[in-house]
Amino acid sequence: MKKSIILILIFFGLTSSYSQSNADSIALEFPEIKVIGRAQSNKILLRWAPTTPIAWKQLNTYGYTIERYTISRDKSTLLEPEKKVLTQNILLPEPLEQWMSIIEANDNAAIVAQALYGEDFSVTMNNDVESIVAMSEDLQQRYTFTLFTADQDFDIAKKAALGFEDTTVKANEKYVYRVISNVPSAIKDIKYGGVFVGITDFESLPKPLDLVSDYKDANVILSWNFKIFETTYNNYNIERSSGNDEFIKINPRPYTILNQSNRNGKSDRIFYIDSISNNKQYKYRVQGITTFGELGPYSEIVLGEGKSLLKEVPHLTIKNIIDENNVELTFEFPEDANKEIKGFELNRSNGEGETLEIVVKNIPPKNRTVVYDKLKASNYFTIAAVGKNGDKRTSFPMLVQPEDSIPPKKPIGLTGTVDSLGVVSLSWSKNTESDLLGYRVYRGNIEKEEFSQLTVNPQKANMFTDTITVRNLNSKVFYQVISTDIRYNMSIPSDILALKKPDFIPPSSPVFKDYEFTDEQIDLNWAKSSSEDVVKQLLYRKTNKAKEWDLILETEEPLETYTDTDITVGKMYSYTILAIDDSGLESIPSPSISIVIPKTKVNTQIKGFYAHVDKINKAVLLSWRYKEDGIAEYEIYKSKKGEKLRLLRMVPTDSKRLYDYDLKINTEYQYAIRAVFKDGRMSKLVIKKVKY
């Protein structure tokens, strides 16, 4: 035998129902023997394989032992399984001499013999399975090719100590088979493999399903579903018949999924391309081959014939836009090819790559122009030549765009929400214009300011998500949307959408400005909260001895005054006010004010109170007389006509006159006086008017 065998493998694949693909098993830390079994009418077939190249090499030296255990008989489980060793001698690959007689006639035998006994192992391949078997280590290549070849030929598997037939079986019994390693455990601990099977497990092989043929010009593409029976069949035969002739096999070697370049694991189908003559009927069928070399039943037959395809392709050359609705297209096509076609078809779509629609049919073969009268803003046209066999050759697309200065309609139905994290969700009604490019979204923090654009480019969706800061002084955020067509004509902006932000900031507090009181009422004045979202004001009061505040006013009106008439002289009253916004947040209560209502005695009043204009001294002289005990001081008030009286001065009791020099000519003034007693009582005010 030659030291080296160079083989050209036309078809190559490594498939098996027990995962003989070494890609996953090479790295196994603990090698084992994988076993499968197949019941036939009068025997049991076994196939196995070690899971690593090193284990395979060691088992080729030390061999295998096959044990059979009878588990059941006549459908009854035995109390003690009956053991039988089926290999009287250690099962090893047959010696080189027994391979020599068949290697010239059997390529499978040559491959396995070289893998087992050749000094080197070199295999030349002429297809892309090279990526699977081109491994750097010689042992790996020997192991891979041996397992693959054993899958193709069960007789070779038996000669290589990877297969076995048990013909001593009985129909009423079921067995467990063990394939045991004879490699000493000190060298390599290889786990045995097993399978449970009996004659009653025999099942007829299924026929391949879903065979489909696609007839082209001088070839046919066959495909069928291999995934359904991938654990049953690892190879296929393909047979063809022309006319009424018998079927003949057209694949020189068993055909596998690895014979095709698109084996990516994503398709359930296997493909085969056959060259044929046109206008001649062909029939096809496929037949599965198991790992044990069994031939399954044939698939359903498919038939058809190849047909000549058009060789010439039309080309659109000139577009003449007549108006916004009409265009005349000119195309080229060889005159001498007119006899091969039935005519032309004009196709149209809205965008490049979109599905084309036939818009003009049955254009005569001699015509080289066509008019289309339903232009849209954007039109992609192709012209197709229709062959007499129904095949078509289609031109490259041509873009036709009539002039367009009309913008799309303004977006309507703009609505939105803002969640507590500041995520804004906007949506609006979708525009119906066919040339719509998309929408631009704008945002503003103030309704009257110029909004800023949020979308870099027009977006197609009629919804938008934005994120805003909710903890700032702006209680609302504003949005507008503009629609844009493919010519970048822009619509007028949508109506402004105002969205209220989640409110985490309480309103500013109201502030008391001043107050006035008499012995009958207290007039309070305040500046209301500056926050725009205030919806309610609460005014509280308490007396000097009370611990709790009493609510005396709750109003939704923007009031800034209040008159408290529920008072008693001699008591002190404290007031505070707060604001509530439309989110229910309360302001900090305003600084409180406290007012003491003094006791008054109305039995006597100051008499002889005069206001005299002193032109020499340019002043108003006030004088009075009053005889009562316990007076602490006098209060003098002054105001211009129509204004409220305000305290001018506190005068001690030993004075009975006062000059006022702060005057303006031709101005009418009024003055008032009252006595303040040491016990807090006050006399009634006496008022005098004077014109300076």
Largest sheet: 5 strands, antiparallel
Total domains: 6
Which structural class fits the helix and strand makeup?
mainly beta
Based on CA atoms alone, the radius of gyration comes out at 53 Å
The DSSP helix count reads: 6
Amount of helix: under 10%
Distance between the termini: 147 Å
Percentage of residues in DSSP E strands: 35-45%
Low-confidence stretches: 1-28, 125-136
Number of strands: 46
Q: Quick one: overall form?
A: elongated
Mean pLDDT, as a whole number? 87
Structural features:
elongated, 692 residues, five-stranded antiparallel β-sheet, Immunoglobulin-like, disordered N terminus, single chain, mainly beta
Explain this structure.
- The chain is mostly beta strands.
- It folds into six domains: 194 residues, no CATH class; 97 residues, Immunoglobulins (Immunoglobulin-like); 86 residues, Immunoglobulin-like, CATH 2.60.40.10; 86 residues, Immunoglobulins (Immunoglobulin-like); 86 residues, Immunoglobulin-like, CATH 2.60.40.10; 85 residues, Immunoglobulins (Immunoglobulin-like, Sandwich), CATH 2.60.40.10.
- It has six helices and 46 strands.
- Strands 12, 13, 15, 16 and 17 form a five-stranded antiparallel β-sheet that branches. Strands 20, 21, 23, 24 and 25 form a five-stranded antiparallel β-sheet that branches. A four-stranded antiparallel β-sheet has the order 5-4-8-9.
- It is elongated and about 155 Å long.
What order do the helices and strands come in, and which of them pair?
Elements: E1 8-9, E2 33-39, E3 44-50, H1 53-62, E4 64-73, E5 76-85, H2 96-103, H3 107-117, E6 124-125, H4 130-133, H5 138-152, H6 154-159, E7 163-166, E8 173-181, E9 193-198, E10 209-215, E11 219-225, E12 235-242, E13 248-249, E14 269-275, E15 281-289, E16 295-298, E17 302-305, E18 315-321, E19 327-332, E20 341-349, E21 357-363, E22 369-372, E23 379-387, E24 392-394, E25 398-400, E26 415-418, E27 423-427, E28 436-444, E29 452-453, E30 463-467, E31 476-485, E32 497-500, E33 511-517, E34 522-527, E35 534-543, E36 550-555, E37 561-564, E38 572-581, E39 593-596, E40 607-614, E41 619-625, E42 631-640, E43 646-651, E44 657-660, E45 668-677, E46 686-691
Parallel strand pairs: 1-6
Antiparallel strand pairs: 2-3, 3-7, 4-5, 4-8, 8-9, 10-11, 11-14, 12-13, 12-15, 15-16, 15-17, 18-19, 19-22, 20-21, 20-23, 23-24, 23-25, 26-27, 27-30, 28-29, 28-31, 31-32, 33-34, 34-37, 35-36, 35-38, 38-39, 40-41, 41-44, 42-43, 42-45, 45-46
Helix pairs in contact: 1-5, 2-3, 3-5
